[in-house]
Amino acid sequence: MAVLVKSVIYAQQLIGKVLAPGEQAVDATAGNGHDTVFLARLVGEEGRVWAFDIQEQAIKRVQQRLEKEGLSRRVILLNKGHEEMDVHVRGPVGAIMFNLGYLPGGDHAIVTRPDTTLVAVERGLSLLRPGGLMTLVVYTGHPGGAREGEAVLDYCSRLSQREFRVLVYRFLNQRNDPPFLVAIEKEV
């Protein structure tokens, strides 16, 4: 029997197959720090993770989580928008992770937006190393979420097949706007 996994877990499984110790990675939407911790473990002592979030509350939570896990030396936390990643990160990076929507446990009025997300995706793809992977878990069950999801899918459908391979992983029979995953692999 096949086991279906949540989009977030599947994103981590995909990233775990391509990100090696000593590499650089980006958590474009740090949120509560789950992906930041995951990436920090993968890159090891010699690697580096840049984690972005526009909410100071999120950055503080992630800092606490990293300190508790003993991983804070591997991560650079930035209280900035993900569309600025190319200003702060020098490539190449092995992996970039996004969780689009709002901060769980935070202000649901503060959400990711298509205009900044698409800029961040474009800039992130330019930082990605050949064989590297970007994942976007897209939550659509909030105001503006469906529009952002459509914008991401439209953008990704126009990426050059010579340069990128794009996978969409979504549940077809689930209610209440389940998130879907977009994975973009940069060709070698």
Structure report:
This protein has one domain: Vaccinia Virus protein VP39 (Rossmann fold, 3-Layer(aba) Sandwich). Helix content is 35%, strand content 24%. It is built from 6 helices and 7 strands; from the N terminus they run H-E-H-E-H-E-H-E-H-E-H-E-E. Helix 5 links the parallel strand 4 and strand 5. The longest helix is centred in the first third of the chain and has 14 residues, at 56-69. It is globular, with a radius of gyration of 15 Å. The termini are far apart.
SSE topology sketch:
Elements: H1 7-16, E1 24-27, H2 34-43, E2 48-52, H3 56-69, E3 75-78, H4 85-88, E4 93-100, H5 114-127, E5 128-138, H6 145-157, E6 164-169, E7 180-186
